[in-house]
Amino acid sequence: MSEKIYLNDLVIETTRRCQLQCEHCLRGDAENVDIPTRYIRELLKNVDYIGTITFTGGEPFLNPQAIHNFIDICKEYGIEVGSFYIATNALVFEEDQQHKELSDAGLLAVIWLYSFCTDNEISSVDISTDQFHYGWLSEDNPLKIFSFVRDKGEILYENCISEGRAEGFSNRFETNKIEPDDLMVYLNTEGKILWNCNLSYETQREHGVSIAQGLKIIKAAQRVTA
Predict the structure, then answer these.
(1) Measuring CA to CA, how many Å separate 181 from each of 107, 177, 188, 214?
(2) pTM for this one?
(3) How far apart are CA 160 and CA 169, in angstroms?
(4) CATH, domain range 5-225
(5) Residue 224 host element (H or E)
(6) What does the alpha-carbon distance between residue 114 and residue 84 come to, in Å, rounded to a whole number?
């Protein structure tokens, strides 16, 4: 039997698509790419426990199918997941949206996540309602019906990460972690593993490693700490 690992924090980049071009975005310009299911499966087949799963992007609800696929694969492999976190601009849930199926699939994904996770005390969905997002959301946005959904609130310029479009106007820098000291794993749409979720797409291409290589590093770290 292959050696299984646990992940305190797993972040999955569901898509690099986004409807907006916010000046503070650490990712950089949007890219028309979604994560293939095979990358999620390749990682999860080696995992037996996840403390917190985070879905990010881009705008994660432009690809809610990735969340559905994650749950299905976890069930298939018997993986326990404690809690979840999603940050969203919530635009796909507005009444005037072009594609209602995205809203329906997104709401179902949130319901199924909450039902699937075993410790939802810290589970949450943050809606970006800061000064970079211009108050377009209606009060009856359907995502707001859930008790664990909250407004993210104002962002201080000095707290922005100096990556992507925010490079140059922020004083805060993030360096790429080479070793998985806290077992936070970031899986991006290109099938690369990183140890830092606060990186632009450009920096990710510079520092990312293959899933196979990332798994070797994690397994070696867990043998040392066992």
Answers:
(1) 34, 8, 19, 13
(2) 0.90
(3) 9
(4) 3.20.20
(5) helix 211-225
(6) 8
CA distances (Å), origin 208, targets 27, 82, 185 = 14, 26, 11
Q: How far is CA 12 from CA 15, 63, 142, 169, 194, in A?
A: 9, 12, 24, 27, 11
Task: Report d(CA 126, CA 65) in Å as an integer.
Answer: 19
* Among 45, 46, 65, 41, residue whose Cα is nearest residue 55: 65
Q: What are phi and psi of 88, to 5 degrees?
A: -145, 155
Amino acid at 91: L
CA 24/CA 162 separation, integer angstroms? 9
Q: Which amino acid is at 174?
A: E
Pairing of β 124-127 and β 149-151: parallel
Residue by residue, pLDDT tens for the chain (226 residues) are: 467 899 999 999 999 999 888 878 889 999 999 999 999 999 999 999 999 999 999 999 999 999 999 999 999 999 999 999 999 998 888 865 556 888 999 999 999 999 999 999 999 999 887 666 656 667 778 888 999 998 876 665 566 778 887 777 766 666 655 556 667 899 999 999 999 888 999 999 999 999 999 999 998 888 766 5
Domain boundaries, the chain: 5-225
Contacts of 57 (CB under 8 A, 6+ apart): 13, 14, 15, 16, 17, 18, 27, 63
Give the C-alpha separation, 197 to 59, whole Å. Answer: 15
- Site of tokens 């360096």: 175
